[in-house]
Amino acid sequence: MVSMTGDSADYQSVGLGIDLTNPKEWELFHAFMDRMGKIGDKKSENASVEAFQEAVKDVFGDKPPERFENMGMRTLNAVNMLPQLPWPKLPMPSEYNQVYYTGLQLARDPGMNIVWIGSAILTLGLCIMFYMPHRKLWLIIRPESKKTNIILAGMATRNPIAFDLAFHDLLIKLEEDFSKI
After folding, report:
1. Are 158 and 134 in contact (CB under 8 A)?
2. What pLDDT does 88 receive?
3. Would you say residue 175 lies in a domain?
4. Residues of the chain with pLDDT under 50
5. Domain boundaries, position 11
6. Alpha-carbon distance 12 to 2, whole Å?
7. Which pLDDT does position 114 carry in this prediction?
8. Would you state the pLDDT for residue 6?
């Protein structure tokens, strides 16, 4: 973050536009800055072009890579932007290595047992809800004058055909058991 006007109230980030993930581009920028420093008082247009050509030879030898135009333009734009900055020197790291890391943190929480118990109850409830058959049976017993009426009713929300067979088998078994009495 830097203040473009020199005022401490208007700090903003300034990017040079160099691709820092490409080490050759960073090396070209350094070589060009070194060559520009060696020019000294000869600030002509030809001197800066010669400095850039020498920097390219320092970094790539006699053969620059393919698609070098974009890298060269970014380097030239970065060097042309430097005089517009309000500070006299540009802080440059001597070596830039990108480090990837994660924010994994391990901690002990005494309330986690309650959370695990709640999770287990929720999982058990989901298993019951999705995998257990939902069946209801009603048994109504009504005493009448000399006999007792028994009404058996049932309902299933899933697989009604299998429930009908099971309910029918239950009725037959109950009739057999009550006929013996």
Report:
1. yes
2. 55
3. yes
4. 1
5. 2-84
6. 5
7. 94
8. 56
Predicted local confidence at residue 133, as pLDDT: 78
What is the Cβ-side half-sphere exposure of residue 149, based on CA atoms within 13 angstroms?
5
Q: Are 15 and 23 in contact (CB under 8 A)?
A: no
* The pLDDT value given to residue 104: 80
Q: How far apart are CA 140 and CA 117, in angstroms?
A: 39
Residue 147 lies in a domain: yes
* Longest CA span, the chain: 127
**Residue 90 forms part of a structural domain:** no
Number of domains forming the structure of the chain: 2
Place of tokens 């309910």: 167
**Alpha carbon distances (Å) from 108 to 20, 105, 116, 118, 120:** 39, 10, 14, 18, 20
Contacts of 158 (CB under 8 A, 6+ apart): 133, 134
pLDDT attached to residue 44: 67
Same domain, 79 and 146: no
The number of angstroms, rounded, from the C-alpha of 118 to the middle of its chain's C-alpha atoms is: 27
Q: What is the pTM of this model?
A: 0.41
Judgement on whether residues 8 and 76 belong to the same structural domain of the protein? yes
